[in-house]
Design brief:
The protein is an all-alpha fold. Helix content is about 75%, strand content about 0%. The radius of gyration is 23 Å and the shape is globular.
Length: about 350
């Protein structure tokens, strides 16, 4: 059969995007075509210099459209609040975001506007439902702590709304938005059912939620170790959500007092190094970004304790900057060294390395 297919030039990415937008090809077919093209030489499809790629912006047109979206939806929200109230405004903005996505996401396949529209849609559904359930007092922290059931219901409705959005538009960040709503519902449910337990153990609950989100992200990562399909973009956004959920409850308690002793500071830095090892192994940098501020606080405390308080800030920034640059330069070399210590079966399942 191969001899019957005429030899043509390589199909460009723009052509594939137009075929996708016009319904000639499905997204799965486009992904498989790209995979076949990348593996035509028998080499790994994306043997990369930087494995953590995702499509955030296609060009300045994305920025231009996003500015227009912000202006339009901001003004629409104002007039909706004045005309029909907060709950109606939330649902109106959500509907407008969906309709705009029909063109800019489904037809034009614009990356940044699609992300913004999804986030506005999810936030608007959540806030609109919350106002319906509890009024504007729902946004008062103390009032929400007394009655968190509206947050539980708003989170569940937002999950359903984002599921419908993903079914229609297939935007990778939708998974993270839905999971964020689920985490909010879980935390609110714990507060509603066991307020005393939540008051004492909210950080551990948040940490468990972060580990669960990280495990979900790794499930997508492990199913696509070469990072060829949409699953890797879904995993990227889930890692972005999991990172603060894991890092904040793990370290914030140690630095909350503001007066760290040497042992505590070294403990924070040790936790940061452990998180860095995990980040390098799974080839995801989000957890490092989330932990940088805490590492800076701990290192600054050590600098102050050894009598260099007058240069604490610039010296801390210098060391953190050097650390980031060194990690960036030696990322793949460090991965290879760490992989040499792991079982071969696990190495083959982790993201590809060079």
């Amino acid at each position: 059969m191969a001899a019957l297919i005429p030899d043509q030039t390589t199909i460009s990415g723009d052509t594939l995007q137009r075929a996708l937008a016009q319904g000639v090809l499905t997204l799965r077919q486009v992904e498989m075509l790209r995979y076949l093209e990348n593996t035509a030489t028998g080499l790994p499809a994306a043997a990369p210099s930087d494995d953590e790629k995702f499509r955030f912006i296609n060009g300045f047109g994305d920025i231009f459209v996003t500015i227009g979206i912000a202006l339009f939806l901001g003004a629409l929200s104002y007039f909706a609040v004045e005309g029909i109230g907060g709950a109606g405004a939330g649902f109106t903005v959500a509907l407008a975001s969906w309709l705009l996505a029909e063109y800019f996401t489904r037809k034009r396949r614009m990356a940044l506007p699609s992300i913004v529209l999804l986030l506005v849609y999810a936030a608007s559904v959540f806030s609109g439902t919350l106002i319906v359930m509890a009024g504007t007092e729902a946004f008062n922290v103390s009032a929400a702590a007394k009655d968190s059931w509206p947050v539980v219901i708003a989170g569940l409705i937002t999950i359903a709304a984002t599921a419908l959005h993903y079914r229609r538009f297939r935007i990778p960040i939708t998974f993270a938005a839905g999971v964020a709503a689920l985490v909010a519902s879980v935390l609110a449910l714990v507060i509603a059912i066991a307020p005393d337990f939540a008051e004492n153990y909210l950080r551990p609950v948040l940490f468990v939620c972060g580990i669960a989100v990280f495990a979900l992200a790794m499930r997508f990562d492990l199913s696509d170790p070469q990072r060829l399909t949409r699953r890797t973009d879904i995993a990227f956004w889930l890692h972005m959500l999991a990172a603060p959920l894991v890092v904040h409850p793990l370290i914030s308690g140690l630095v909350a007092s503001g007066n760290l002793n040497a042992a505590t500071s070294l403990g924070v830095l040790a936790i940061f190094i452990g998180l860095a090892v995990v980040a390098v192994l799974v080839d995801r940098r989000a957890v490092l970004v989330s932990g940088l501020s805490y590492a800076g606080i701990a290192f600054g405390s050590l600098v102050r304790q050894i009598g260099l308080g007058e240069v604490m800030v610039p010296l801390t920034l210098l060391v953190l900057g050097a650390l980031v640059l060194l990690l960036s330069a030696g990322w793949h070399a460090l991965r290879r060294r760490l992989f040499a210590l792991l079982p071969a079966a696990l190495v083959h399942r982790l993201p590809a390395h060079t």
